[in-house]
Amino acid sequence: MRNRKAPFLVGGVLLMLGVAGCGDDDFANDPRPPTPVEMSAVIRDDGVTLSPKREGAGPLLITFSNQTDRAHTITVEGEDVIERTAPIQPQDTATIQKTLRPGSYDVRAGSSRAVDIEDQIRPATLTIGPERAESNTDLLLP
Predict the structure, then answer these.
(1) 59 neighbors 95 (Cβ within 8 angstroms)
(2) How does pLDDT run across 98-109, given as a tens digit for each residue?
(3) pLDDT tens track for 56-81
(4) Where are the beta strands (DSSP E) in 45-113?
(5) Per-domain residue ranges for the chain?
(6) Which of 16, 100, 129, 142 is the most buried (most CB within 10 A)?
């Protein structure tokens, strides 16, 4: 009986030593970035509306809803960033996901007919302030 237990005992000790040796002493426990903020924007014939218009720096998800009768491309531009969507069809939505730094950003809606002044839609201005707090203490994040 002793001979049959010895391999299991040795195997168990080796397994425990292997698990105890796991890990990396050089693990950088850097803070996680701020939690992404979801914003909404509406494209209307008279202009683009953002809610909220001000936010702290960090990851943003801006969902655009096209409430006009023609397709529009959205451009977010400022502070070394130019982000564009594909054309958003009438009554459809699109989302831009971007990490923005502090500064001022223009949010414009354009269409193939927007060459005339009367066809242009008034842009919105998004103001990004200081960086939001890290998300290390937020629960239920991926």
Answers:
(1) no
(2) 999 999 999 999
(3) 999 999 999 999 999 999 999 997 88
(4) 47-51, 54-66, 73-78, 81-84, 93-100, 103-110
(5) 37-131
(6) 100
Those residues with Cβ within 8 angstroms of residue 76's Cβ, 6 or more apart along the chain or in another chain = 62, 82, 83, 84, 96, 98, 105, 106, 107, 126
Contact (CB, 8 A) for 72 and 88: yes
User: What tokens does 32 get?
Assistant: 């996680």
Question: What pTM does this model have?
Answer: 0.72
Token digits of residue 6? 């010895």
- Chain CA centroid to CA 107, Å: 16
37-131 domain in CATH 2.60.40.420? Answer: yes
Q: Give per-residue burial for 101-130: e unless 16+ CB within 10 Å, then b.
A: eeeebebbbbbeebeeeeeebebbebebee
